């Protein structure tokens, strides 16, 4: 499914103006998460590509590409077997890349718990480069929005929601959505406001943050920011 971020936000704002607030999150919440996850996946993908490009190992490259092809064809069990072999026998960057891809395949299979556990394990492995650990933590955090509690999302990614961290924009958005889903509007407002206040926030993320702030204001469950 293709998403047009601007038209999507306009549609939600039309719902707000028509005073049909009760079903807005029920109708649009999942799509907000999906649109944002696409941004996270793209960012994580670039991190992983840079890591792969800096550590090319021709001996196992063809095997990794073959495993990815199996995953793209939804031959998930075959892909997992191939990736497990690469994790154990591969060279250079491929064992780490295989672990990340295997966790993504678990998402494709619909096993969010296994995927979250795999991403969390990578995120805690000090033998893995820091950028890849952060990418894994972000993937776990976004999966936990729909499959866990706010406290779990916070434990996974709040340390990245700080100035200077490359993933801070996505981390703040995930934390805001998790707080909103948990009904903690005051906390959600703080996270979305931090996105709006950061002049380096990407336009799409900032637009979604403005939209969520409008939702929170319309709910009447958190005071509007002063200033």
UniProtKB/TrEMBL annotation:
Keyword field contains Transmembrane helix: yes
Residues annotated as domain Ancillary SecYEG translocon subunit/Cell division coordinator CpoB TPR: 23-202
Main location: membrane
Transmembrane segments: 28-49
GO cellular component terms given for this protein: plasma membrane
UniProt KW Zinc keyword: no
InterPro entries in UniProt: SecYEG/CpoB_TPR, TPR-like_helical_dom_sf, YfgM
GO MF annotation, one: protein-containing complex binding
Pfam families per the UniProt record, alphabetical: TPR_21
Family (UniProt): Belongs to the YfgM family.
PANTHER family with a match to the protein in the record: ANCILLARY SECYEG TRANSLOCON SUBUNIT (PTHR38035:SF1), UPF0070 PROTEIN YFGM (PTHR38035)
Protein's name according to its UniProt entry: Ancillary SecYEG translocon subunit
Organism listed in the record: Rhizobium esperanzae
